[in-house]
Amino acid sequence: MQNTTSIIKAQSKNLDFFYSNGMQALKSVNMPLYENKITALIGPSGCGKSTFLRCFNRMHDLYPGNKYQGEIVMHPDNTNILEHGVDPIEVRMRISMVFQKPNPFPKSIYENVAYGLRVRGESNKRMLDDKVEEALKGAALWNEVKDRQQDLAFNLSGGQQQRLCIARALATDPEIMLFDEPTSALDPIATANIEELMSELKQKLTILVVTHNMQQAARVSDYTAYMYLGELMEYDDTNTIFTNPTRKETEDYITGKFG
Amino acid sequence: MSKHMTTNTPTKAPIQVQASVLKNLDAVRAMIKRHKLNDYIFSVIGLLALMFALLTLLILFGDLVMDGFERFNLKFLSEFPSRRAANAGLLSAWVGSALVMLVTFLVAVPMGVAAGLYLEEYAPKNWFSDLIEINVTNLAGVPSIVYGLLALGLFVYILGLGQSILTAGLTLGLLILPIVIVSTRESIRAIPIAIREAAYAVGATKWQVVYDHVLKYSYGGILTGVIIGMARALGETAPIITIGALTFIAFLPPSPVTDVAPFINFEWLSSGFTVLPIQMFNWLSRPDHAFHINAAATGALIIIVTLLMNGTAIYLRYKIRKNIKW
Amino acid sequence: MNTATQMLNQPINLTISPRLAKNVRRNIKERIIEFILMLAALSAVATTLSIVAILLYESLSFFKTVSLVDFFTDTQWTPLFEDAHYGILPLVSGTLTTSAVALAVAIPIGTISAIYLSEFASHKTREIVKPLLELLVGVPTIVFGYFALLFLTPILQKIFPELPGFNMLSAGIVMGIMIVPYIASLAEDAMRAVPMSMREGSYAMGATRFQTATRVVTPAAISGIVAAYILGISRAVGETMVVAVAAGQQPIVSFNPMESAATITAYIVQVALGDLPHGSIGYQSIFAAGLVLMGITLCFNILGHLIRKKYREHY
């Protein structure tokens, strides 16, 4: 095992999740997220990987009737972010998210990136300018848009929009960043850009990424979890998963025998 | 099942808690609390705004019922209008409304449904169907009094139909035509192509497909639109006033059904008439308060009938949406 | 017996088979039906054309007597007086004033209701309230006229003792109440059309409901919301019974809602009540007024639908 000295940033403990229609989408999932590492979630569609990811920033709270059981504990403060007393907004301020399809707001590039800060009540122009620039640089978008920050975000290309969404998520200095199939709507070049970006970002924060693309998981992640029918089948460092998986099912999926 | 997967989880969580993170968290929590206050305030304001519209309806209805209470009896429905408020009744008005509605129905439903069918099932998608579509949308937004002017110029004088039940029925029929067309189109559009293809596949002609399937399955939706349209027509006042129908009517039109062969006559179509909202307006515009009581009672009656009609339509639509299987 | 071989062996029949003849008849029938349906659809075009034709026709006779300059610049509207003046301005000012009061009521309440319904209310609340709003839209306007004249005006007179019995304020407020459900319903539709992914993006940044509603959803739906306002204006301008009952009949140029004044629609009603002889200048004047009314509402309707169409294409 490599990285045994790594620090755990968050971990799920016996996590069950039920959708409002009563369907159990997650069954007793236990998994750690290591600080400054990329953890990839793979598995056939409907296996619960996106559901699991969305537990981390309490996205499911937006729809009434959804139910969590178990814990996701965040370190160093040992907060169970699924606890009733913990405000989902607080969780989302610490853990940001990038979605499957780029979803910029109908605002300027600048305002998109500044959104998280504005939501936090920041109105100092200097501070906003600095943070926006820093985030755009962090998302490798600065050179392309520095002269047109007031343009509408919709005018950017798909890949640029997704990097804008990363910049938006980055601007508020999150501790963890969630990526929900961030490249599934993008062409190969844009995909490569995003993957490179993720590798750079992990120096600053912890990343959990859902991907339908096994090569992507192999390329970018340090750890990989294989999920099937709401259960975590196997979790290990990426090398082990892709070269020497413990379970037959994992091997079958990775080698393309099903899924 | 979960034996394999927890093997890598280190048992040791970091013991040392960074003070900065916690301090930061406290600040974040205070800020969230502040921001969430706006949520609560807006929830209250929003609910009040919503209630405002709904409460108005209640107050309005309550006010009418209280004001008109003393006229709520059968005599009010069986007496003609009179110079003495306490003796005046709605007989000619409700009979007039019923007959006008009958004409409206006969004009708007066949024409509206046929137009809806044509636009959805037959019309080629080109400038021609665009033109008709723009017209329908536009007609829905034309103020009702303009329909009254059309009726006054065209039906009353050019066609010489006079200030008759036929004129009123035609006018209101045109007025609710867009409602019937739009609801027909919407319910037709909800029928999946697969059903049409299934019918064509067994050799049906276009009209057979349209008549046996499209029309039959969209029946409920069309009915909803028709009821809403009829309720609108029942309450419309302005176009009827414009054709000059505000007169003292203390007689009933000739009966559409007779006891001698052919048991039906059309004299009633050219008869003078009054309708419920006109009668209400008439009483409302008199200075004598005693007539205002009559107006209130009429208003309450109109509200009850239109609410019942619209309520039925909305309930029907709800049931249809719930029962759709495709 | 081998029927296929039998059929092959039969001589080819060169006359039109009964089946084919039946097809021709069927085709004709289909064509006739299509033609009848098309006529029905054309009735919409015919109605529009008739409206425009009638308004133009009678207005043309009107404008033979009255110059266009007088019509648009004279500040008096007294077609039925000995000393007749034909300036449409007083009627337009009355129309605009009552509409402005109505919008001052309907826009804030309608917008707040829409935001609440779309972003704050539970699914259940929405399911109950939406049909209720539709019911409200269906209440006949004459009933609202009663409400303005005999319920609201007496209350307002307690607050403003100098308020006349017929006034634009009361009529405008009631018209506003009437339009609230209309604007709320259309604006809510526009906000529901904003894709959920955009809301999720905002919530994922730690935004509250209020922040998401005001900073993301409302700007995203703004063209639809504006279209709702514009269609609301169009309704206010064309509304007849409330103003005819409660706003008064003096055609004066005034933008003070505390006064009594006639609107375009109220004037038409007033003339129609008076039984003017067909072909007289007074009779023609209501068509000229109607033409102006039609022009104003048409502009707003087209503008509203263009904006609505634009936001629909957006997503």
Task: Describe this protein's structure.
- The complex is a heterotrimer of chains A (259), B (326) and C (315).
- Chain A has 259 residues and is an alpha/beta fold.
- Chain A has a domain at 8-106 and 175-254: Rossmann fold.
- In chain A, 35% of the residues lie in helices and 25% in strands.
- Chain A is built from 10 helices and 10 strands.
- Chain A has helices spanning 49-55, 88-94, 109-119, 125-138, 142-145, 158-170, 188-201, 214-220, 238-243, 248-254; strands at residues 8-18, 24-34, 38-42, 67-74, 79-80, 95-98, 176-180, 206-210, 223-228, 231-237.
- In chain A, the strands form 2 sheets. Chain A has a 6-stranded mixed β-sheet, sandwiched between helices.
- In chain A, strand 4 and strand 5 (79-80) form a beta hairpin.
- In chain A, helix 3 packs across helix 4 and helix 3 packs parallel to helix 6.
- Chain A is globular.
- With 326 residues, chain B is mostly helical.
- Chain B has helices at 19-68, 74-78, 91-122, 127-140, 144-158, 165-189, 193-201, 206-217, 219-235, 238-242, 276-284, 289-323.
- In chain B, helix 3 runs antiparallel to helix 9, helix 5 packs across helix 6 (165-189) and helix 9 (219-235) packs antiparallel against helix 12.
- Chain C has 2 domains: 16-65; 89-314, MetI-like (MetI-like fold, Orthogonal Bundle), CATH 1.10.3720.
- The radius of gyration of chain C is 28 Å and the shape is flat.
- Chains in contact: A-B, A-C, B-C.
Please tag this protein with its features.
heterotrimer; B: 326 residues; mainly alpha; MetI-like fold; 2 domains; 70% helix; flat; C: 315 residues
Task: Give a brief rundown of this model.
By secondary structure, chain A is an alpha/beta fold. Helix content of chain A is 35%, strand content 25%. Chain A has a domain of 179 residues: 3-Layer(aba) Sandwich (Rossmann fold).
